[in-house]
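Comment thread on ticket #2218

A.B. wrote:
> Attaching the input chain for the structure job we discussed in standup.
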Amino acid sequence: MLLSGGLDSSTALAIAKGTGFACYALSFDYGQRHLAELDAARAVAAAIGVVRHEVVRFDLRTFGGSALTADVAVPKDRDPTEMAEGIPVTYVPARNTIFLSFALAWAETLGAGDMYMGVNALDYSGYPDCRPEYIEAFERMANLATKAGVEGRQRLTIHTPLMRMTKAEIAEKAIELEVPLALTWSCYEPQPNGLSCGRCDSCLLRRRGFADAGYEDPLRYAD
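C.D. wrote:
> Ran it. Output below, let me know if you need it in another format.
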């Protein structure tokens, strides 16, 4: 289970757990702007209950190219039309490919044939590595890439249960599954007082999702 500590990945974890899987959670300290999401991932993993939670560390600031890994301003106060135009500067080059590659390696050592991630193709920020065709392509590659796959001992399936859901539907599912929403984190740019900014794309999408679903978001925002 790729677990960022956000609403989507935490809900996907709860879905996997509810399906009956013994869950192994994988998070990444990749040089992102802040570590609040990793604190959230640890808290969510403990609250929902996983067999093991690992945090892999490497530094994508070496390459930069993103507002999350370089000295580039995080977009604020954008309306949905703006968010839908092009790929935003918060896109981290090849991030999901890197994450899934680590997950593939761990899945092979565990003998696990199922991987879960919380990507979404509807209310998303335009990231190319969240599209269903990308996930399908990686799954095909993954089944050609490992010793276990070549020997016929493992057939890997990448599950994306939120792919066709709106953010409001994800919020409803999270509440239905009793995801510890107050422990999750979505903000790209935490404020000095520890609150979510409430103005970045991720905050705005989350807030709109809860509003559309008719629920109060338990997170506290700076505004």
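A.B. wrote:
> Thanks. Noting for the ticket: The chain has a mean pLDDT of 95.
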